[in-house]
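Why does this matter for the project? Reviewers at the last site visit asked to see concrete outputs rather than summary tables. In response, this paragraph embeds two records directly. Each consists of the residue sequence and, immediately after it, the corresponding structure tokens. Nothing has been edited or filtered.
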Amino acid sequence: MQKKSEPDVLKEESTNKRIKFVYVTRHFNHSGYLILKKLIEENLKPDAIVLEKKHSPYLNPVTRPFAIAWYYFKCWYYRCPPIKTLASEELLAKAESIPILKTKTMGDDMFVQALSNLQPDLIVLGGGWHELIPPVVFQLPKLGCINTHPSLLPEFRGTSITRWQRLFGVPESGVSVHYVNENFDTGSVIEQKKMPVSTDISPQELFRQLGNVAAEMIPSIIRRFSKEGHLPVIQVEHNVQYYRYFHRWKWDPEKLKIDFSASLKDIHFFICANTQESYQYLGPVCRINGTKYLIRESGLLNLLPSFPNNANIINTPVGKAFIKDKFLYIFRDNEESILEIRRIQKFDEHYPIRRSNTPDYFLGTAKTINIEEI
């Protein structure tokens, strides 16, 4: 066997050298947890993890079981799917003996000093952060700071991104890994991966799926940094309609009123975009037979479902409607899509304690269905 020369040995050692990196995420973040879990599985533990300094009953070992049980009880009571992220990045890091740095803000001098003491080669944001990363932080590592973003940048910069994507009904989304600079989500892109978006997916489920995509991307990108150093960037082009900054989603009661002048497809996307982790909170609202209802879940069909010949199809101000197999259907002669209302909740001053149900529970076999805007 030929003996390797000293330069070859040094080159191989350099190639196989593992970089030091710090991982940053918010608490209870789909993407943040899935990426961290994947890094651990692939023997790429961060040298430290950065989390916001905050208190939560889900983090306390004593109160956590009760907090989780209470959340699942509320889901059972309201009849809503349990879509809240309960997996904890902090508890996972502690279980794996990963050092944790906590701070209210990254601009804090003590935090910057603690981060500097770690001498990281790279900072990886896997689950976002609640503020703009200051230059003193993202310029600290020699290889820079990278972020995973749940959209195909430069589309959908900002926050509440999966809600905005659902509102606009985009058929395709993806994950962008980019360098961090002085602005939100404007740094040069290193890598992107696309994925299709189903018509009925909730923002939370979309974020979870995008988190799975990100979790597959980050380990290989970190290995590339170890081998290649500073990574080259790619040129990306997508739909310029979404090339802007999107602000945090606002739960304004006025903006939650369903606009029936919109297409049924857009109404469905509006309902999906406003999916809540618990039905104790506000949601899209309209009036049916004189009563206000929160529309909690809808579907979109391309073909009118089969129904008996004697189905009671009723003309309403927003289209033709009928009830079949528990659901309320709305269709229009000039549209291909049929809106399927699957779950509603009576909306009055007592709505936080009212349970949701299928439309037939509230409307029964009503011979008249009058659907109106608020």
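We now turn to the second protein, recorded in exactly the same manner.
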Amino acid sequence: MHSSNIHIKIFTLFILTAILISILSPNFLFAQSREIVAKNGDGIHKILRNNGLDPAKYTNAFIELNKTRIGKDNTLLIGVKYRLPDAESKITVQSVGEELAATTPTLSPTGTKTAPLAAGKTMRYDIFGSKYANVEIKSNELKGAVYYLKSGHGGPDPGAMGNYQGNVVCEDEYAYDVTLRLARNLMVRGATVYMITIDKNDGIRDVSFLKADKDEVCYPNLPIPLNHVKRLQQRVNTVNKLYGKHKKSFQRFISIHVDSRSKGENIDIFFYHDAKSKTGKKAATTLQKTFHAKYNEHQPGRGYHGTVTSRNLYVLKNSYPAGVYIELANMNHQRDIKRLIIPDNRQAVANWLADGLVIDFKNNK
């Protein structure tokens, strides 16, 4: 009888264990998941939002659940059924941010990412070049702010190209130089900064004509695709994955470019925001007002005519953090190029952008 009771207990334990395993298995968790058919224009983030799911929380779960049905670069295929994650289920999937944290030191020697530092400390970041590598943290006024800085084009694509005094002038090099200067300015004030476009050997260059190359990569070290759409997707995906790591922080996405217009069109620095982003519009307007005040202070009587408008741009429409898209000049206008090639002018632009972003942070924290 005693032996019989032991067998019954063992059998009962086996049954309970089998039930428990089946309940905890991913198949069981997703058994009741809703399904949706992808339509033209649908993406993972759009589908999640339309179904009441926060993309920052459920993107990884969606990808894991539908990994055999998703196209290249996590695109959705029209007419294919996709399962939606259960809002109640808790799925632990290592995020790309965690993977980066495991492979990238908090204070990267390349300077591709920085963490907030105490005022008074000096750190070395070789990405800024030998002259500017030592960065003294002068204040904590941007402590708690996270910035994703992306200069346009890079890698196989030089972007807009102009010519000045027999020298070829490429958009990606000048946009990158201003972006790098801006990154350093933000770090000096205690911000956390991610350089999304990275050139590990250019550094800040105090020369007029910046030599073009094709060795830029996307954070942390991804080759930049030649295909325009894939390049935009790569950068937006990178920013969105990092966004999830800093969900409770103040975050901004800044994209810097040089425009290409008719030769007769002289332009001032102007700003785009996404039409649906009130925060993006407010940030862009703050930057514009800062430039207006700076021109009045440093060049009274010159006037400043930079605008703030909405535009349906992929990087603004699809990125999680509020974003501002900045055009520095017209690459086809000789006076614009002259303004752009002067190193002190590029530094002034970076300084004024940083000042505007400080105002934006203080008004919104």
